[in-house]
Amino acid sequence: MCEPSAIGRRRRRDGAFLDRLAGGLVRAMDHALDADDLSRRDGLLQRLDPRVKLTGLLGLIVVAVFVKSLIVLGGLFLVAVALALPSQVGLSRLARQIWLKVLAFTILIALPAIFLVPGTIVARLPILLWPVTLQGVRSAAFLLGRAETAATFALLLILTTPWPHVLKALRVFRAPIVLVAILGMTHRYIFVFLESASRMFEARRSRMVGPLSPRNRRRVATATAGALLDKALHLSTDVQSAMVSRGYRGEVRLIDDFHTTPIDGLALAGFAAIAAAALWLQA
Amino acid sequence: MHIPDGYLSPSTCAVGFAVAAPFWYVALDRVKRLLQTRLVPLLAAVSAFSFVVMMFNLPIPGGTTAHAVGMGVAAIVLGPWAAILAISIALMIQALFFGDGGVTAYGVNCLNMAIIGSLVAYAVYQAIAGRAPIASARRIVAGAIAGYVAINAAALAAGFEFGLQPLLFHDATGAPLYAPYPLSVAIPAMMLAHLTLAGIAEAIITAGIVSYLQRANPSLLQTTAMAANDQEAERERIAAAGGWRGTRPLWIGLGALMAACPLGLLAAGIAWGEWGTDDLQNPEVRQQITQASGNIAPPEHVPAGMERLASLWTAPMPDYAPPFMHDANFGYVMSAIVGAGLIVLIFVALSWLLGRASPSRERSA
Predict the structure, then answer these.
(1) All domains of chain B, ordered by start, with CATH?
(2) Residue A262 sits in which domain range?
(3) Contact across the interface for A190 and B180, Cβ inside 8 Å
(4) Which sign does the torsion angle of CA A107, A109, A112, A115 carry?
(5) Beta-carbon neighbour count of residue A252 at 10 Å?
(6) d(Cα B343, Cα B335) in Å, to the nearest integer?
(7) Domain for residue A71, yes or no?
(8) What ipTM did this prediction achieve?
């Protein structure tokens, strides 16, 4: 039999496991609500037609992936920051939501490249004497620069555009209507399931009177996932019945209520000019 | 596993979209015909489920945690085509809304996780589960192995895509422009993480959900179990029908691909690793090889073993250019026709041999 203190520690650890599972889901919901709130504020990017914004920002992402000059890549990163500030997206938010996350992930891949990519040796690591190559440093800088710049543009799109508008704007790229409809419904269901999963974990936690073994923790997680799948399929049947009862026969129609203004034309020209300048400078 | 923007070159991303597009088209066509009015709500619900499952961190043996993708579960419950669509949609929401996986790398991510993952998971599950009863423990084992193999197949594809980048894309100084590690580093690095942590997480979630559904809602496992039997009936039907009508779309596709063969001539330079002894002696080609190999020059002299083996067989149509054809484009098309014709002949001969063998087996049985 375990000592009380040991049981206490294990209970806390088991509770922490379920807390982490539920906490991750709640954070995802918070992130979405936060983005929705920001997209309705008055800012530079918020004022643009979503189709123009989607085309312009996706174009800049492609250019950021395409350019072969670190200076131009740095310039594009500054453009992203310059677009963020008048759109009420602060630097601390960008750092918290994207820069630090991308840095944490990319540095694991980029850092060893400094030593592993063969080329001209420019320095040696103190003590270990590992060679730092010029090609390795450039390669790491490209990887980090591209990932940060592209992710910043992508985040700006989502933080300044309500999700249903992003989906409708996808029609600019001839995305099938049925895909747009599925994406819209998926987005709504995600929140239903996130809440549902979070409640299931909470319910399980409230019934815990002893520690859970790792095997039982896995069982809780997989049983929750299984129950969620069951619910998902039931929900789809219910929704289908409701749709059919309203006259749905398999054809999806969307109301396209976007209106472009002269400012949108100017913005599109601005995006195109930035992309062209970046490509011209790197050439 | 979710490749972000900037890790792959634009051309690799474009190839990813081009390869994924026919699978999306076929999947949508098949699923639409099958589900009709159920298509939109079912795919939306399962995509949302896949998204949420990707956020579950599972404790795995060894004291650490890892998250699963859920490709095995979707393929086992819905079949491979609906799973391709459901996981592709979940990946799109992750890329656009949560910044998990790049927008430009979306096609490649779908190719790895949604297409390769779902097809491999389904094939492995069907091969192992066979016609076992729905409540059989064999189905749980099949689910675990299907999830494990599927995520590792997807990781292998991702490792291959990463590893190609430094070979194909670098700047004037030789610095890799995208993912910096060659195949010899990228593939082991990807596989190590997936053969251990991620593979086990995928196996646990797939087996756990199959086991849960066996107890709670076995009817959900019936769809693909029945499909396996239907496929066998379909195979028998196709074998019985045969002929031009059944295979017409495939012949038309083959013809179109043959006509498109000269597109290969647009590619500049020489394919990496496909050098002949002449190429290693040609200064211009040697320079190309050096550039494509991260500034590592090929050996000064042709390796003795390569020289010896190169003379063993002389191809009748070297470099897809028959000696009697003066136009390279026609030479390519001619090579495609001859190659495809030879393959068809081999299969006709094999099917004839198998056809002769099978009645005797039936008689002996």
Answers:
(1) 10-241 (1.10.1760.20), 242-265+314-365 (no CATH), 272-311 (no CATH)
(2) 29-176+258-282
(3) no
(4) negative
(5) 16
(6) 12
(7) yes
(8) 0.79
Domain membership flag for residue A24? no
| Token pair listed for A152 | 């910043």
Spatial separation of the C-alpha atoms in residues A264 and B227, rounded to whole Å: 51
**Chain A residue with minimal CA distance to B57?**
A21
* Residue B209 contacts A, CB cutoff 8 Å: yes
Q: How far is C-alpha A209 from the geometric centre of its chain's CA atoms? A: 37
Assess A117–B contact: CB distance below 8 Å, yes or no: yes
Closest-CA distance, B173 to chain A, in angstroms, reads: 7
Which residue of A lies nearest to B171 if distances are taken between CA atoms? A68
> Is A181 domain-assigned?
no
Using CA atoms of A182, B154, B5, B69 in order, give the dihedral in degrees to the nearest 10. 50
**Residuewise pLDDT in 10s, chain A (283 residues):** 333 333 344 444 555 666 666 666 677 777 777 777 788 888 888 989 888 999 999 999 999 999 888 999 999 999 999 999 999 888 998 898 889 988 888 888 888 888 888 888 888 888 777 888 888 899 899 999 999 999 999 999 988 988 878 888 887 777 887 788 888 888 888 888 888 888 888 888 788 777 777 778 778 888 888 888 888 888 888 887 888 787 776 666 666 677 778 888 999 999 999 999 998 887 7
* Interfacial A residues in 213-232 facing B (CB < 8 Å): 214, 217-219, 221-230, 232
Q: Please state whether the predicted TM-score (pTM) of the whole model is above 0.80.
A: no
Q: Distance from A178 to chain B by nearest Cα, in Å?
A: 7
B95: which chain A residues are within 8 Å (Cβ-Cβ)?
A: 154
- The shortest C-alpha distance from A239 to chain B (Å) reads 6
All residues of chain B having their beta carbon less than 8 Å from the beta carbon of residue A64 are 5-6
Domains in chain A, number: 1
Per the listing, tokens 């251990």 go with B196
A155 and chain B in contact, CB less than 8 A: yes
Report the gap between the CA of A191 and the closest CA in chain B (Å).
8
